[in-house]
């Protein structure tokens, strides 16, 4: 058999286009060729199981090999094989039947994945790295003759009799000078590990040395000998292909270690398995993240029939779950997808909704089944849940029943439980419920103690997402506001009718204010004389809740850059009913008055961690003098 011909094409040569547009992603040629070999292998297994192939299947692994001297890379399988006619049909006609449309449609394409897989181009991706591609194949069909196809990247091809004696196909790439990196064992292993790690057929890449028992020595100790064995680079049966009922917790943990060798054990996992209205399997793990909100994206891997596609799964997995780890496999997502395709595909949108629901259901189940354990994990999973509630309305509706608020006493409450707990004492004179919170319990301890004296509860809101979560709670909860415990004196945070009477006269109030303003002498510190409980601190330094919240959000890049640029302004609340104020008024020496006022102010700064540098040194000196 011998035949020469021209590939039917009505426009410019297709191969320069392939090379030009696929250059940035040229390593995926190996994924395509190995995937094709796996497909051919699975098809012969299927035909055998249906009784349509009577021969021996033999060892069905796919082999990848290279010859550095000859500059060849070979992908071999023992699958269906092809006849000469099938080569012409599948390699020539299909690949180029739509060439004109292809060139027009993709002439401006940027994404390699947008091209590969169109019009049979999976095989032709080989020309990104090869000057010449050769096929040696023998069909499974009875009486079939071996066939050889060769093409140098032009529109010319040649089909002749082949030399293969066993069923299957060899794809032989004669690697071009620019692509000699693909004649390196390390580089090829890297690509195979990335794309082919879980293919459903064993993939052999060379051999490796292993130790095996070889009797005992004279002292009765076991001896070992080194043997060369096939280097199988993949796990053909990963856990997501199995039924959850057939797996133990250890199986899930072992698989996690296989994916992420240096990570701590995950908190728990969700096994995805759905076949309608789309096909989807996978396992998603909740890692221990604490308050590290630096998105470690690219931790969820997307597969199609166990072939790795991408670890950029933003459109498939809801953004708030991007911190999860694991795998998703769906044959309904094409092996070769572009970002624009993902964003528009209806199956992808359904998968996104399904994963959101599945995660919410799992968290609700854990909460109901073992609340104590759920509370212990809240420090890790709270970031996921809060972010989900902020970004996904449907998730909020489910999560509001298991989302927890935690207070400074390390107690945990659902939203409804917390409302019941504090409503009696923390409702102000206008009927508004006020939740107090701290972002740093140690630093804001004086303010927390002031609140606790009134039996007010203080929440801990110290995760990086809490700024946004606080805003959402205020939007969702009726007649409820959240105030940071150090944003004002406690009597002003929750205004009641029973305000302590003011013991200072108008003249005394003016005098005290003047003394403190002179002692502090800072433009960003506004002094106000307050009528507070005599047991409260003589001076408190606070920052307006709204301004502070806006500035915090600006620091997180929350679109509030205007507020971030504004100067820091504070309120200095002087407790007019405190004994120290009376002492200042009775002191006739102006210098001593100023010293006492400055000392009280510095103490207020010190309690907030705001007294530093030269001001702190001066405070220490003054304290020694006053002792």
UniProtKB/TrEMBL annotation:
Annotated InterPro entries: HATPase_C_sf (IPR036890), Heat_shock_protein_90_CS (IPR019805), HSP90_C (IPR037196), Hsp90_fam (IPR001404), Hsp90_N (IPR020575), Ribosomal_Su5_D2-typ_SF (IPR020568)
CDD domains, sorted: HATPase_Hsp90-like
Keyword GTP-binding: no
Protein name in the entry: Molecular chaperone HtpG
Top-level taxon: Bacteria
Annotated keywords: ATP-binding, Chaperone, Nucleotide-binding
A Pfam match: HSP90
Entry-linked PANTHER family: HEAT SHOCK PROTEIN 90 FAMILY MEMBER
PROSITE patterns assigned: HSP90
Family: Belongs to the heat shock protein 90 family.
Keyword Nucleotide-binding: yes
């Amino acid at each position: 058999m011998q035949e020469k011909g021209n590939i039917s094409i009505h426009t410019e040569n297709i191969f320069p286009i392939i090379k030009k547009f696929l250059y940035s992603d040229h390593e995926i040629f190996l994924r395509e060729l190995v995937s094709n070999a796996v497909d051919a292998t699975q098809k012969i297994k299927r035909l055998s199981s249906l009784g349509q192939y009577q021969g021996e299947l033999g060892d069905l692994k796919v082999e990848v090999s290279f010859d550095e001297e000859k500059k060849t890379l070979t992908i071999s399988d023992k699958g269906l094989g092809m006849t000469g006619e099938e080569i012409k049909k599948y390699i020539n006609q299909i690949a180029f039947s739509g060439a004109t449309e292809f060139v027009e449609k993709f002439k401006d394409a940027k994404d390699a994945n947008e091209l590969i897989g169109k019009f049979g181009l999976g095989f032709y991706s080989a020309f990104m790295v090869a000057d010449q591609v050769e096929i040696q194949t023998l069909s499974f069909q009875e009486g079939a003759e071996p066939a050889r196809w060769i093409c140098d990247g032009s529109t010319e091809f040649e089909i002749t009799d082949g030399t293969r004696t066993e069923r299957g196909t060899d794809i032989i790439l004669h690697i071009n000078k620019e692509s000699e990196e693909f004649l390196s064992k390390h580089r090829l292993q890297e690509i195979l590990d990335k794309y082919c790690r879980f293919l459903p057929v064993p993939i052999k890449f060379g051999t490796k040395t292993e130790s095996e028992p070889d009797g005992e020595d004279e002292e009765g100790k076991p001896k070992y000998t080194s043997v060369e064995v096939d280097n199988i680079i993949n796990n053909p049966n990963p856990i997501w292909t199995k039924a959850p009922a057939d797996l133990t917790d250890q199986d899930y943990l072992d698989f996690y270690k296989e994916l992420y060798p240096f990570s701590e054990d995950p908190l728990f996992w969700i096994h995805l398995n759905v076949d309608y209205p789309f096909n989807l399997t996978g396992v998603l793990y909740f890692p221990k993240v604490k308050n590290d909100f630096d998105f470690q994206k690219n931790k969820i891997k997307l597969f199609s029939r166990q072939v790795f596609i991408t670890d950029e799964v933003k459109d498939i997995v809801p953004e708030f779950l991007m911190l999860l780890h694991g795998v998703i496999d769906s044959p309904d997502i094409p092996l070769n997808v572009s970002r624009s395709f993902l964003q528009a595909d209806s199956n992808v949108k359904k998968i996104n909704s399904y994963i959101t629901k599945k995660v919410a259901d799992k968290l609700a189940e854990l909460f109901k089944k073992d609340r104590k354990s759920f509370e212990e994990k809240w420090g890790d999973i709270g970031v996921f849940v809060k972010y989900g509630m902020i970004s996904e309305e449907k998730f909020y509706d489910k999560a509001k029943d298991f989302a927890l608020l935690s207070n400074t006493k390390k107690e945990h409450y659902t939203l409804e439980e917390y409302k019941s707990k504090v409503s009696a004492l923390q409702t102000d004179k206008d009927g508004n419920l006020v939740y107090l919170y701290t972002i740093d319990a140690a630093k804001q301890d004086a303010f927390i103690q002031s609140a606790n004296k009134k039996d007010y509860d203080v929440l801990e809101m110290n995760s990086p997402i809490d700024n946004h979560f606080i805003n959402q709670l205020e939007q969702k909860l009726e007649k409820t506001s959240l105030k940071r415990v150090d944003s004002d004196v406690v009597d002003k945070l929750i205004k009641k009718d029973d305000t302590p009477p003011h013991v200072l006269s108008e003249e005394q109030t003016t005098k005290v204010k003047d003394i403190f303003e002179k002692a502090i002498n800072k433009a960003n510190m506004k002094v106000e004389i307050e009528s507070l409980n005599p047991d409260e601190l003589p001076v408190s330094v606070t920052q307006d809740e709204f301004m502070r919240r806006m500035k915090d959000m600006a620091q997180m890049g929350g679109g509030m850059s205007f507020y971030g640029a504004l100067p820091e302004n504070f309120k200095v609340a002087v407790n007019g009913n405190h004994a120290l104020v009376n002492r200042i008024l009775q002191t006739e020496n102006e210098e001593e008055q100023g010293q006492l006022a400055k000392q009280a102010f510095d103490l207020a700064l010190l309690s907030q961690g705001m007294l530093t540098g030269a001001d702190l040194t001066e405070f220490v000196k003054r304290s020694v003098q006053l002792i």
